[in-house]
Specification:
107 residues, alpha+beta, Alpha-Beta Plaits, 4-stranded antiparallel sheet
């Protein structure tokens, strides 16, 4: 079974202000992007499950067809840089998406 990393050219996370982290998953081509959407690999529900967070923490979820991208933003538990914040830049939060399985595309 292929991984999301086999289909996406970019998987990243970064700050979206002091209280949010945004994620970008950008696909190499439209067929892979369309397939991931069709199979519902990434939805609000699956993202919450992958990140092990409550769905209510997801503030935005966008499938942006012109860029073959799925973008979502989550509320941080603590403001960026505050005591106990383990990732000031939000740049290490994408890791769980590297191992996400995607069903085989039809030939």
């Amino acid at each position: 079974m292929p991984k999301l990393t086999d289909m996406a050219k970019t998987i990243r996370s970064k700050n979206a202000g002091t209280d949010k982290i945004t994620f970008d998953i950008i696909f190499r081509a439209q067929p892979q992007y369309d397939w991931v959407k069709e199979c519902k690999v990434l939805t609000r529900q699956t993202v919450a499950s992958i990140l092990n967070i409550a769905e209510e923490r997801i503030s935005d979820f966008v499938e942006y067809d012109p860029a073959y991208a799925i973008k979502f933003t989550i509320h941080r538990l603590k403001p960026s840089g505050s005591a106990g914040d383990g990732d000031i830049f939000g740049a290490q939060q994408y890791a769980p998406f590297l191992e996400v399985d995607v069903p085989e595309m039809p030939k």
